[in-house]
Amino acid sequence: MRGWVVGLLATALAAQSMAATPTVRITSPTGTEAVFGEVVMTAEVECDEAVAFVEFILDGKRVGKLLAPPFRAVADVGSDNVEHFIRVTATTISGATGSATLVTPRIQVDDEVLVELQQLYVTATKGGKRALDLQRGDFTVLDDGARQSLVTFQRGDVPFSAVILLDASASMAGEKMQAALDGARAFAAAMKPLDEARLMVFADRLLARTPFLGPGVDLLADVSVPFAQGGTALNDHLFISLQALEQRQGRRVVIILSDGMDSHSVLSIDDTVPLARRARALMYWLRITRAKGPVAEADPSLQYSAWRNGKGHQRQIDLLERTVVESGGSVTLIEGPGSIGQRFQEILAELRDQYVLGYYPSNSRNDGRWHDVEVKTRRGNVSLRTALGYTDF
Amino acid sequence: MVTRAKLAGVAALLGLLVVVPLRAKDDPPGESLSPRSGPTAQNPDQSLAQEAAELKTIRLVYANALRVLATGSRDDAIAAIVLLERRQAGKVASPDLRRLEAAESSLARKLGELDSESLVPVMLVHHDLVEEYRRLGEFVLSDASGQRAATLAELYSAGSGDAQARSLAGGLVASLAGQAQKEGLFDGTKTLFDRALTLDPGCEPALIGLGALFEVHGRYELAVASLGQLRTAHPENWHGVLRLGVNLVRIGRHEHGIPALRSCLDKAAPQWVAVLASEELARALLAEDKPDEAAAVLRQAADRFPNQAGLLVELALALERRHRPFEARRVLARLEELPIAPELSPRLRYCKWPHEEIAAARERLAQAATSRLPALAGVLERLEPEGE
Lengths: 393, 388
Fold this sequence. Notes:
The structure holds two protein chains of two kinds.
Chain A: H1 2-20, E1 23-28, E2 38-46, E3 51-58, E4 61-66, E5 71-76, E6 84-92, E7 97-104, E8 118-126, E9 129-130, E10 139-143, E11 146-148, E12 150-155, E13 160-167, H2 175-189, E14 196-202, E15 206-209, H3 234-246, E16 251-258, H4 269-279, E17 282-288, E18 303-305, E19 308-309, H5 310-327, E20 330-334, H6 340-353, E21 355-359, E22 369-377, E23 382-385, E24 389-392
Parallel strand pairs in A: 13-14, 13-16, 16-17, 17-20
Antiparallel strand pairs in A: 1-2, 2-5, 3-4, 3-6, 6-7, 8-9, 8-21, 8-23, 10-11, 10-22, 12-21, 14-15, 18-19, 22-24
Chain B: H1 4-14, H2 44-70, H3 74-89, H4 95-114, H5 119-136, H6 139-160, H7 163-182, H8 186-199, H9 204-216, H10 220-233, H11 238-250, H12 254-263, H13 271-287, H14 291-304, H15 309-321, H16 325-333, H17 346-351, H18 355-371, H19 373-387
Helix pairs in contact in B: 1-3, 2-3, 2-4, 2-19, 3-5, 4-6, 4-19, 5-6, 5-7, 5-18, 6-7, 7-8, 7-9, 7-18, 8-9, 9-10, 9-11, 9-18, 10-11, 11-12, 11-13, 12-13, 13-14, 13-15, 14-15, 15-16
């Protein structure tokens, strides 16, 4: 008798348990492809009993808890090429649980390397004038010392995306500011189809901006032109510009026009350099100086702002200069507002006259390592300027 | 602001025209109030008598100006003192300036002996004359006014002896230091802040001013010492705690600097302080190779202050350090939606001199001076038979 009662109770409990166990199915991601960045995870739950909550666990961490459908969670898995473990658990109101797991794979790159076409934008000059008659065979490209085979060769109007960064700190007030705005406007007006430019006017904060605009549109049409005011946060705005350019295809260009040096950025120039190397933008720095002749070094005994002493100030200058040169662009000292417009036009002409050399690096490993690049020509008296290298991603 | 027309009006008001002929525009500076001697020979008794007469005249005119002040006509009083002092002292240090100093100080000492509270409006007037003389290009008189105001503050503090008097006196001298700082005078500014702290060791504007002065000259250890005292005396001064945290981190004392910065995230702290503290805290955490912690601080701050671009820029940097470029890009995309900020960035605001604390000290002093005008009137009344 007693055995019969116990048996009946066990059967009833088992039946109840079976009926209440939720069935979970992960509907996204599928598990067949690697995932990076923001991932949307969705799941379906079937159960005879009401579901109390559903939890999403990603790589051992709970990233979502939902009380009602749709069961959906969003998380950032980063950009590392690794497997990710997703587990979704549903719990009913009586405490019964059911779960599903999924492993997203990593991309198999052990045996092959995705080699990206490297493009070099080369400015060639002879006797102070652009040399426009060079041929493919005139160039030799060395990547970390190894000679490379050119697969593309072009000269001229490769479309570009440019960010024009105008310093509008208090010291730029008056003629300088007006000349800078006029120069930027004329630059944009002279662009060719498929080129685009955006303007960012900054001081210690952003004062005005445009979206990327193509030719034929007045760059300043929808900009309320600010008064020059405040301090200089060049590094922050360079960082923002490089991030924006990284999302554009083709040739990327940054033109910085400033009469001072960074004094009020959150970021130091050191923070910006890795991004500059990754974005591979050609950088031009139009540096307005106060007097003729060479620019004096910062006085190490002076404090240039609450954030920079003389030594730090000089480091900002040196590193920005080095980054500009490394990008294949140039630093130009401008002694007053008179030549700002002309210099903008010279940059535009230089971009139009550049040679574009493409090659697949023979020594690429996608390992984040810096590659030194050197371009030589057999033509006598011709000087070449291009990026000094790239980061191998 | 003192104008020539105003000077004429004030002179008439005081009856000064009898003893002080108004100087023409091109008159040489430093012409005396009374027909003093030139280089002609005099015997010693004559000289002494003449000196005494001149002192008496200056005291008379100065007392009249203070009577105007006691009626509440501050601007007229300032105009009268400017008239007197420009006439008497001119643009360079001279015996005339010493005579002026002696005459005015002796009268002020007398006032202080009768009622020390009567000195409050007087010292404020001399404080305000520092800037007025700078505007007029009278730099010697400006410096002399600063010295006079500081000396009167010390006299007042010593005469009164209570905590409020020490605080008012310290605040005045700290405000003078703030004026000296505008001229870029490190030693002069520091000396005045030190004098303010001698009067009132807890003087808030002096402690933050001294901290900022040391900081702007790259002397971070000294800045930390001053700002540490400020935090002890005025823990609610968030601006001071921020500067303390920034400078502690600068000299490598992260273990103290990070908690100081973290404390500035308190809801009671002004917005610009909390924003900058978040940025600097994250900066310190990044330097310690803790990008996740830095990102958490910045996310929280960006949620609280969504229009602060600097927070988003630094958050993007933290994410880059964490090898999350896509997420960094998404964060920066939020910048495109932000309105153009009309106000100074917190980082530029930090670079400004701590004028708010100093302006507050000046304001407290102005209120105190107004309330002491009856005291001034009273002692001038009592002074009359002896002084004139």
